[in-house]
Amino acid sequence: MELTEIKRKLFIFTLLAGTFTMSISQSALSTAYPALMHFFTVDAATIQWLTTGFMLMMCVMMPVSPWLLNNISFKHLYLSVLALFGIGTLMIIFAPTFWFALLGRLLEATAVGILFPSFQTVLMTITPKDKRGQTMGAAGLVMGSALAVGPIISGIVLNFLRWQALFWLFCFLMLVIFLAACVTISDVMEQKPSQLDVFSLFYEGAGLGMVLYALTAFKDPAHLLSSVLLLLLGLGLLIAFCQRQLKLAEPLLELQIVKYLDFDIGLLLTGLSYVSLIVVTIVFPLYYQKILGLSPLASGLSLVLPAVLLSVLNPITGKLADKWGFKPVLLVGVSMLLSGWAGLLLWQDHLGLPLLIAFSMVIEGGNAFVMMPATTLGANSVPKNLIAHATALTTTIRQLLGSLGVMGATLLLSNAGQSITQKSSYSRVFICFLLIEAIALVLALRLKEVKK
């Protein structure tokens, strides 16, 4: 279905509004953990399942998005996602027990897992190839802004109102977006009905769930053996999933896309840049609090400037990718990522708040030059009918690598009991991620994509 320019802009605005709200719900929740722990009378390990469970369900649903786009009209799918997220949020508000709230959180995660790959697929489908960088830059702006303002909005609401008010805000926004979507969202995706392969769904869901759960459980030495066994079993199921996809005439996830070299490089680059981004949001607050002695509020506010820079640069880098080509933009971004981690390592004995904020801005600025441009490059490298599969695989691998990065950073920091309060622990993290981004530089140099 062809859209006029005005309808296309309204379509994109409504689509990104839903994505923005869901992104805020992710970044804002951790601020509410103390209030939720007190309300449900649970400990920190239990309340963390609101994030761990969310991540598991989100990753399980991402590979299913191509099948949903092919079998359900996009307007109905988008409205269903908004409604599902709203229902999950209402369940959290009225939850009598923690486990009922967790069920609501899993419904939210189901909606997010479907939407995040789908909205990227739709954006690239309705946008001409030579303007996709700019459009995906706008998408990056939305997601980056949510990262920046989520904790701030949560902090303001919780400072004056009960924790339920935060979720009522999400419900109100979802209602407004739902009503707008009834008018502005159109069926822009071509339908290709197919039967859902239950075995593929089981292998993928169980395999990803086991792998991600094992990664989150590795930090507990008491469960190391069971975590390793669960990880191996999950990897075995994922291998079975991949083998089945290569044999099916209509696979759940088309893995033939890996034969395109630029897609493979784009896939790995977006994952490696995301690892740096997610680790910065975890490691830097720890450094601020454990080494510099800042309060949790001050450490959180210290992340705002880098997040704002990420948001501002995303649309700019998208335009530059359309103008110059993807390879120069990606090389600039990877060089910034390398410079940020190298600076942290070289000046580790002199790291005060100004230097840390500066280096985190370099890293998150580099991310703006890599993550969304690499995602767009990967989609541009495959035939149009495979874009949905490309974005689903990209978002899934990105989440998996992000989880692996968090696990690696956590293990490096907690390697010696109380070492989290020692600068040498953070040096190990700096070295590790400097090496990771060195690999990213090698990948970027291998790109064959040139400006046409």
From TrEMBL:
Annotated Major facilitator superfamily (MFS) profile domain residues: 11-452
- Keywords for this entry? Membrane, Transmembrane, Transmembrane helix, Transport
Q: What residue intervals traverse the membrane?
A: 46-65, 77-100, 106-126, 138-161, 167-186, 198-218, 224-242, 263-288, 294-316, 328-347, 353-374, 386-413, 425-445
Its domain of life? Bacteria
Subcellular locations according to the entry: Cell membrane
Q: Does the keyword ATP-binding apply?
A: no
Keyword Membrane appears in the UniProt entry: yes
Q: Name one GO cellular component term.
A: plasma membrane
Q: Which Pfam families does this UniProt record tie to the protein?
A: MFS_1
Descriptive protein name: MFS transporter
Q: Which organism is it from?
A: Ligilactobacillus murinus
